[in-house]
Amino acid sequence: MTEDQVRSIFTLARIKVDKLWQLTNKYWPDSYLKERAASPWWLVRSRIGLIEIGWRKRVISIDWRDCVVRGIVTEDDVTKDETHVHAWDEFKAIEYLRKLNQLWEAQCMQHGVNCPKAEHVGDGYLHDYADDAPFDDDGVKYCGRCHVAL
Predict the structure, then answer these.
(1) pTM given for the model
(2) CA distance 107 to 66
(3) Could you say which DSSP state residue 9 is in?
(4) CB of 89 closer than 8 Å to CB of 60
(5) Which of 12, 125, 127, 130 has the lowest CB atom count within 10 Å?
(6) d(Cα 92, Cα 60) in Å, to the nearest integer?
(7) What is the pLDDT of residues 19-70, one digit of tens each?
């Protein structure tokens, strides 16, 4: 899996990658130098926390044990627990990471604190970009960071 592939998977899963580190493949033993070199694993830092991802022989391993969020991300018949899952392909990896993102939002996200910061494009905003406090528009409260109705 290349760095671009990892970034694409996370982008399609709606998880912004803050930083990426390449890791040695943790599946293939040392004697499989060619396979290890051709298929690195990755450590991804995002708002969710640190997520490790990489190809085993036939599945993509996704591990979030170093994150606060816990939960089963699929009912599919795959290896899984509350901190990791095996995906048969990139499409399933995206699906499982989307579910992990949803779990994080339900369990850990706090509006005005660690929700995604919405950009201010143009004019007409009811608050300053640096102001993360809730604001009111016609009796409806909105988060000052992500602009979602509260």
Answers:
(1) 0.77
(2) 15
(3) H
(4) yes
(5) 130
(6) 9
(7) 999 998 888 877 777 887 888 999 999 989 999 999 998 999 999 999 989 9
